[in-house]
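Data availability excerpt. The first of two example chains:
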Amino acid sequence: MNLKTALMLWGFVSLPIFLGIALTANYVWYGFLIGFSAGLFNILWLFRDASKAIHQDLPMALRIYYKSLFSRLGMITLVVATIGRFQPEWLFSLALGIAGGVIIPLIIAISNQLRSGRG
């Protein structure tokens, strides 16, 4: 998945959320949008590190993956802790957004890989 696809996906998800917030004044959906953005950023970070590690030897590639894993987990933990501290009613929609932000780009990347025939 490249940045162009990620931006298009973020736009397709954020537009209905912003319209829904404007029409219903239900601000809990901001949690979903923040979670989706964090999940999407997490996956883009994973893809970037995977492309860096693909040409390395095994110990160096594993070191890149471990460092990336703990950094990405720290970023998600920071987002959850911040939202939990200031807007605890947004936590459920935040969790749904993080799940959607991780699963949807992975499905798109897998389908692109299978369509290209190199999977």
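And the second chain:
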Amino acid sequence: MSKTTKKTTRARKPAAEKPAAKTKTPREDLCVFAFRLTEAERDAIHKAAGPAKASKFARNLLVAAANKDDAAVRAIMKEIAAVA
């Protein structure tokens, strides 16, 4: 006796349409700069910056201070004073 195998064919699902290609903007060549701080300092930074903005806040403030950009530092300080 020979066994025969029965092939079943399935209908293919139509391919999902691909979204339009996004144009990628070049990213800055960044590196990591890390430092240690107390929990209280971390909490104060998060409170001043607002939700999900602490890193950007800290980066902007540190860069402004390092560049001795008094106007930028004052603008950042004015922003957090308005939030508080």
